[in-house]
Specification:
By secondary structure, the chain is of the alpha/beta class. The chain folds into two domains: 120 residues, Aspartate Aminotransferase, domain 1; 236 residues, Type I PLP-dependent aspartate aminotransferase-like (Major domain) (Aspartate Aminotransferase, domain 2, 3-Layer(aba) Sandwich). 38% of the residues lie in helices and 15% in strands. It has 13 helices and 13 strands. Strand 6, helix 7 and strand 7 form a beta-alpha-beta unit. It starts with 31 loop residues before the first strand and ends with a helix. It binds pyridoxal-5'-phosphate (PLP).
Length: 382
């Protein structure tokens, strides 16, 4: 350990976005890449052409990007208004902050709330790992509660008790994903009632990364709840994972704080341009959603016929499955073999929290997923 490094960092390992991928930084194209929940569809060629024109004619690479993001924030606010059943145009640029992926916004929220020993965060595992990882790199304690093993609902009793008991520092932020990753379930009425019951000293972060697939949003509640923020991203339905754009919708005072802690030129000009083009063409880009949803239903229906598998409902663009408990084999070892076999057959999926998370891909990819899951299970030696 280098002598000048913070002592608590010694125990961390660097985040590997593709843990299933042992060596290569880039995955060979012959794999079906169903391990990171991206859209299977690239940006359409006509929109790429528009962007190349912008790159060639508009962007001056020697100049810093627009650090205020006003145009992009206006466009995002309009999209948020249109995407929710709101009676009026509730949101304006003052309700929006943009980040280099929602990961940056998660870090900014942590800096603004918990840093310096002021707060801990609460998560319900399994959930999106970045909340815990980013908190730990900032020296922020992470309190984790469990979920029900069958329907993946948050253990609300444990969550409430953690909030009441955690001291030095108390819980300042609760992170939830709606719908959750990796388990694909939306927040239930009981979970929502609990989130609404939290007092205003606790920030509630609702990550709607999969909103375009779930079509359920809580932005309509933000007006009544100054302690809630909603995160969204261009990395999933909008097909821009490569360009790293996320946004936060919140009360203007919370946005003002986020603006204080963010890096001055956090979004490259090209990413800003791409997000704008995406919003201007959102009807075209989101046309693929119904297909993803019907493919998801098909995948769940067919794979549910496998007696070894336990699959829960999904409100997102991925499915989550586990091996049914069976006295004969170790779940962990069998799942590892299952995951590895899928990889050998050419499909990358995410092995996470005792299950496999599989992104819904193209029609062809999903057909191969079914065949390969069946083949891997047939050869699984327990
Ligand atoms: C994919 C995903 C994101 C997106 O992160 P970016 O940094 O915007 O790419 C955020 N939250 C969850 C839960 C996700 O699954």
């Amino acid at each position: 350990m280098l002598p000048f490094i913070r002592s608590d960092l010694a125990q961390f390992t660097a985040y590997k976005p593709h843990p299933s991928n042992d060596t290569a930084a880039s995955v060979p194209a012959q794999f079906d890449r169903l391990d990171t929940n991206e859209s299977p569809y690239d940006f359409p060629p006509e929109l790429k052409e528009k962007l190349s024109w912008t790159y060639q004619q508009v962007i001056e690479t020697n100049r810093y990007p627009d650090g205020g993001h006003e145009t992009l924030k206006d466009a995002i606010a309009q999209y948020v208004n249109e995407s929710a059943p709101l009676s009026s145009s509730l949101f304006t640029a003052g309700n929006i902050s943009v980040g280099n992926g929602s990961d940056e916004l998660i870090r900014s929220l942590l800096i603004a709330t918990c840093l310096g020993g002021e707060g801990s965060i609460l998560v319900a595992n399994p959930t999106f790992s970045m909340y815990g990882i980013l908190a730990q790199t900032l020296g922020i304690p992470v309190v984790a509660v469990d979920r029900n093993e069958t329907n993946f609902e948050i253990d609300l009793k444990a969550a409430q008790s953690a909030i009441e008991k955690t001291q030095n520092p108390p819980i300042r932020v609760v992170f939830v994903v709606h719908p959750n990753s990796p388990t694909a379930n939306s927040l239930t009425a009981a979970e929502l009632a609990w989130l609404r019951s939290l007092n205003e000293h606790i920030l509630v972060v609702i990550d709607e990364a999969y909103f375009e697939f779930s079509q359920t949003t809580l932005v309509g509640e933000l007006a009544q709840r100054a302690n809630w923020v909603i995160l969204r991203t261009f990395s999933k339905a909008f097909r821009l994972a490569a360009l790293r754009v996320g946004y936060c919708v919140a009360h203007p005072e919370a946005i003002a704080i986020l603006e204080k802690v963010r890096l001055p030129y956090n979004l490259p000009s090209f990413s800003i341009a791409a997000a704008l083009v995406a919003l201007q063409n959102c009807t075209l880009l989101l046309e693929s959603i119904p297909q993803t949803l019907s493919e998801r239903a098909k995948l769940i229906e067919i794979l549910s016929q496998q007696p070894e598998l336990q699959i829960t409902a999904s409100a997102a663009n991925f499915i989550y499955l586990r091996l049914k408990p069976n006295g004969f084999y170790s779940q962990d070892a069998a799942l590892k073999t299952f995951h590895q076999k899928l990889r050998t057959l050419g499909t990358l999926v995410r092995h996470i929290s005792g299950g496999l998370r599989i992104t819904v891909g193209t029609i062809e990819e999903n057909a191969r997923t079914v065949n390969r899951v069946q083949a891997a299970l047939a050869n699984l030696e327990f």
